[in-house]
Amino acid sequence: MNKIDLEQYAAEMKELEKADLAAVYIHPFAAIAIIRQIQLATRIQLAYVDNRELEKVNKALNEAAIKTAKGLQELFDKNSEVYKSLEIGWNIERNRAIRHEQ
Q1: What is the reported pTM?
Q2: pLDDT tens, the chain, 102 aa long
Q3: Domain map (residue ranges) of the chain
Q4: Distance between CA atoms of 102 and 97, rounded to whole angstroms?
């Protein structure tokens, strides 16, 4: 089980895009952790894959991850420092400035 059929994977992912929404209950700390991990992951360039369908799937997953993270972020009061820090997390240049200011 070391090899994945990339064509089948792409087809299955395409089907999942059509699936119904799922309700999930998570602790606020878990929401923050998920948002932070998505922010970091979306900055990493995906390795080049010589498969156009897989590239489409990766792009769709990236977009879904960002949409999910931004939705989770709405769980927090927009005036709270938690929300503000999460919002800053979407701005790469601002993150660099914060690290240098500390």
Answers
A1: 0.68
A2: 577 788 888 888 888 888 888 888 999 999 999 999 998 888 765 555 667 777 777 788 888 899 999 999 999 999 998 999 899 888 877 655 555 455
A3: 23-101
A4: 9
